[in-house]
Amino acid sequence: MRPYTAILIVPTGVGAAIGGYAGDAIPVARTLAQVCDRLITHPNVLNGASLYWNIPNAFYVEGYGLDKFAAGDWGLRPVRNNKVGLLLDQGIEPDLLLRHLQAADAARATLGLTITDYVITDAPLNVELRTSASGASWGTIGNPDSLLRGAEKLIQKTGAEAIAVVARFPDDIDEDAAQNYLQGKGVDTIAGAEAVISHLLVRHLQIPCAHSPALASTPPYPDLSPRSAAEELGYTFLPSVLVGLSRAPQFIVEKQLFISCQDEIWANQIDAAIVPANACGSSALLSLSQSHCQIITVKDNQTQIQVPAQLLGIKSIQVNSYLEAVGVLVALKAGINPNALVNN
Predict the structure, then answer these.
(1) The pLDDT of residue 185
(2) Which InterPro entries does the annotation name (predicted)?
(3) pTM
């Protein structure tokens, strides 16, 4: 019998009550990974700044790659270890740049990760932050060509198989929005722009990529929410990105008609997808809803957007919490109709 495979999606930059902060969906991922054979998820779920957790049967897949995978265009090939290249924004100040290089050295020496030499972009990336009318965050890159040239240089000159990119983010973040986020009540104002950067790299390079922001240090915040506290543990958010990319599956961008590896994962092998109940409009979920995949929507994980499954004509099992979702997954994996476990 083939492995039972689930996807956990928490959209980036939409203020998800669980997974909208600093790695606060990691407990959900750890739990779901116990009841399925393979769990596919993305950096927004697994990145916790200096905190991370090795989940052996979880696959770290960037959002654009996840969309292509869910559509059946790309497959996933598990790896033991990627050579991770470090791409640094020329706009990062020398002291802050040194902090990131030291973080990479620490990951290499302490965790045994394979990190190649670093490359600095040939121009500042000039990231700007934006907020949509719905309240979701996004952003723009002033010099995307410089980003792509730097990434290509990493691949050609250092043999990088995955890329961790660190861009300097602006200091003039909306104060009210930042305070709300730190108190565990608002949207991560930089997450949407981070997704734009990683999407561009994965679309162009077709290898695993993830982003870590470079931000100026700030004084301690007295009323910090535990959900945001991971960002206060160090000077960089790089460690969790490097750990994730070290084992991120490589993308299979061309289907082989006759030669395939038993470990390869394709969209038609996905058994279930777990998403917030009012954030069902992602490309990945729309693709999966057209297959045999069982959609499970979680009511408790509220977001700033209102796109429920019913509005899109998506059939789903709605549950109140991720704890309830775990029970549904156990039943489905056992071949039991979840309705048989409730008093109707």
Answers:
(1) 76
(2) DUF3326 (IPR021763)
(3) 0.93
